[in-house]
Amino acid sequence: MQAVFLLILIGVGLLSGAAIAYVIGAASIMTFILGGHANFMAALPQRLFSQLDVFAFLAMPLFIFAGDLMNRGGIASALIDFSMSLLGRVKGGLGHVNILTSVFFAGVSGSAVSDAAALGNSLVPEMQKRGYSLDYAVAITGASSIIGPIIPPSSILIFYGALMNTSVTALFAAGVVPGLLLAAVLMVMNAFYAWRDDHPGGGDPSTIPPIKKSFLRALPAMTLPIIILGGTLFGIMTPAEAAGVAVGAALIIGFSYRKLDLEAVRQSAIRTAVLLGALFIILCAISTFSYIAALDRLPQAIAAQITEWGLGPLQYLMLVNVVFLIAGMAMDVKAAVALFAPIFVPVALAMGIDPVHLGIVICFNISTGLLSPPIGGVLLILATTCNINYWRLIRATLPFFFAEVALLIVLTFFPAISLALPHALGLS
């Protein structure tokens, strides 16, 4: 009963428009007091500290810092030029360039919102100039940016692994194939739209960058993800050490491109600190929620209900997908993972579902929520960056959103897609 009261308080708070950390934290504290559990709050500070005192979390701020440095350091233009030299000549080429650049970006920033902002500023105007409609240019940019949180290094995979005590290295390995598969699906869709709507090719061949020159300029940025991923997958580096390497490389690359200076580094550090502070406040609020939910035996109640319904592992995974898709439509990605994963994941693990497969399904699911109304983060960024009506943008992105949901269902029913690489490397 107390858990129901808690969820109602959180729902009312979210509808009021208050910040999610304050809503969850205040509702949890009220439930402690009104539910007669106030004496248990004495252990709350220790529980909050233990929630944050996780070594895997160290990698997350470093990867955020590295991604921001690379976005400021001219990486975007180098990767776009190389992608253009490879695919800019084919019909619908700039759509393919958009997707391929997102694949390269995924190994740099690991953030869908950062990728969407970078490409929205640089590639969308170029696509309009070459004859693409604004609607399509922004829609394909938003759809391809979802690749960022799936292909490692990914902050959401690090966050989930640290939160649910799942190997971050195994999650990194498991994210490679689904991320590339998503890119392939989007390229097929782009090819179809290019044929149906007669999208232009790359235009004047003289505007296509020379492949050798663009490759050499983009090589440092493309090599870094290989070093990071190879180092973590083969046990040479921990994810935190790999993140440190990424920061060092981002500084070297940015200064070598002459796009980075000390003021830009300072601004990047400030932005990283602000993002990290907001994230840790959410983690503290979620930890308080998880504590009262555990006292009220909410996970056990869910398990009992699932048993009563007679759901098997696949049916339960589909239920989890529905919950996280709805959550992703209205909540921040990491907040939704932190709020719902501790409730639903233990039940899934008790049913024998592989924790790495479960992590990929949840992270793919919640990342897809960035492209869904009413407050998808990628949609909001692109609507502002590209000066397009929000609801017009939603209509343009819906076909891509449904394609990503369809791929999510495929990943749910076929665990071997996600687990092939972890199994081959002995990580799962």
TrEMBL record:
Domain TRAP C4-dicarboxylate transport system permease DctM subunit, chain residue ranges per copy: 9-417
Keyword Transmembrane included in the entry's annotation: yes
Main location: membrane
Alphabetized UniProt keyword annotations: Cell inner membrane, Cell membrane, Membrane, Transmembrane, Transmembrane helix, Transport
GO cellular component terms listed in the entry, alphabetical order: plasma membrane
Pfam family, one: DctM
Domain of life of the native organism: Bacteria
One Gene Ontology MF term: transmembrane transporter activity
InterPro entries per UniProt: DctM, TRAP_DctM
Cell inner membrane among keywords: yes
Transmembrane spans: 6-34, 54-79, 99-124, 136-163, 169-195, 215-236, 272-294, 314-331, 336-353, 359-384, 396-421
General function of this protein: Part of the tripartite ATP-independent periplasmic (TRAP) transport system.
Family: Belongs to the TRAP transporter large permease family.
PANTHER family: SIALIC ACID TRAP TRANSPORTER PERMEASE PROTEIN SIAT-RELATED, TRAP TRANSPORTER LARGE PERMEASE PROTEIN
Name of the molecule in the record: TRAP transporter large permease protein
UniProt source species: Thalassospira mesophila
